[in-house]
Amino acid sequence: MTDTGLPDTDEAAFIAAARSGDAARFALVTEPHRRELQVHCYRMLANVEDARDLTQETFLRAWHKRASFEGRATVRTWLYRIATNACLDFLAKRTDRTPVPSGVPDPEVEVPYLQPYPDRMLPEDPQDAVVARETIELAFVVAVQHLPPRQRAVFVLRDVLGWPASTAAEALGVTVASVTNALQRARVTVRAQLPARRLDWRTPATHELSSDERGVLAAYIDAHERHDLDGLAALMRADLRFAMLPDPGTVSRTAREAVDGWVSAGLFGPGYDDWRCTATTLNRMPAAALYRRAPDDPEYRLFTLAVLHVVDGEIAELTGFDAADKPWLGLPATR
């Protein structure tokens, strides 16, 4: 994404609002950028709650720095610059925002702070590169977390948003040469983290679920509601990767290991044998919202989310998330 040919807040209206000293008027002209800035912060931080906080921090900083807007770049670029640096400041203060060892025999890490991003919170323009499926899927967001913060910022600004090196350098207060070097290193790291089938994040974007994805999701929901462990296992690749977040040490590397772990944890046993599921999408991926009815409870309550990555009609990756007490998901708490 670049400024060329893209809609932006009317500059004259922005300048007038900034000079007026009217905070409400300023908020009105900057608010249209909230969704895309929040996605940007999410890619930097992999956490919806952090992204929401940092987006609000961006608007607060923009208000306090409004006199610094000189019109040499668009308002959108100016806001992205503020948001990027707000995220870098946040990461500099947090020691718990880096991947950690997963505990599986082969070297692998988990991102325990990873949260799924509801599609309903994405910008509404389906053509916008901000919401390209290839750069919002969980695997891509996790791969970006392996980058040091400044490399992360360079990679997102250059390869996701499509900024020129000079613009990214100005935003980060570094040289063009530094940006170029950081981007080269970042690309190597990201490519090492992504499966070969998902290396090209710069091809024309896709957005919609495929018929395979819709079919597998429907079959997953049906098997789960019928307590059909064999049916669930049949939907998965033998080398399925499973993780349940934010619980540590839950990574499984095979479908058999994942199913055995679910059984040992009590799935479909007493208290975990009454389910209703709803199809949804998160990170532009097929997902099931799993509602559990506990004994003596008249209602099914939102319990977990299962996000599926489907390859050739099979589930290659299954990521579970705790869904309780997260109203930002936009899902009913009961059904």
Lay out the secondary structure.
Layout: H1 11-20, H2 23-30, H3 34-45, H4 48-64, H5 75-93, E1 100-101, E2 109-110, H6 138-145, H7 149-160, H8 165-172, H9 176-193, H10 211-225, H11 229-234, E3 236-245, H12 255-264, E4 275-282, E5 285-292, E6 301-311, E7 314-322
Parallel strand pairs: 3-7
Antiparallel strand pairs: 1-2, 4-5, 5-6, 6-7
What would you say this structure looks like, in words?
By secondary structure, the protein is α+β, with helices and mostly antiparallel strands. Among the domains are: 95 residues, Rna Polymerase Sigma Factor, Chain: A (Orthogonal Bundle), CATH 1.10.1740; 119 residues, Nuclear Transport Factor 2, Chain: A, CATH 3.10.450.50. It is 43% helix and 15% strand. The chain has twelve helices and seven strands. It has a five-stranded mixed sheet with strand order 3-7-6-5-4. Strands 1-2 form a two-stranded antiparallel sheet. The protein is globular and about 65 Å long. The N terminus is likely disordered. Belongs to the sigma-70 factor family. ECF subfamily. It comes from Actinomycetospora straminea. Interacts transiently with the RNA polymerase catalytic core formed by RpoA, RpoB, RpoC and RpoZ (2 alpha, 1 beta, 1 beta' and 1 omega subunit) to form the RNA polymerase holoenzyme that can initiate transcription. This is RNA polymerase subunit sigma-70. Keywords: Sigma factor, Transcription, Transcription regulation.
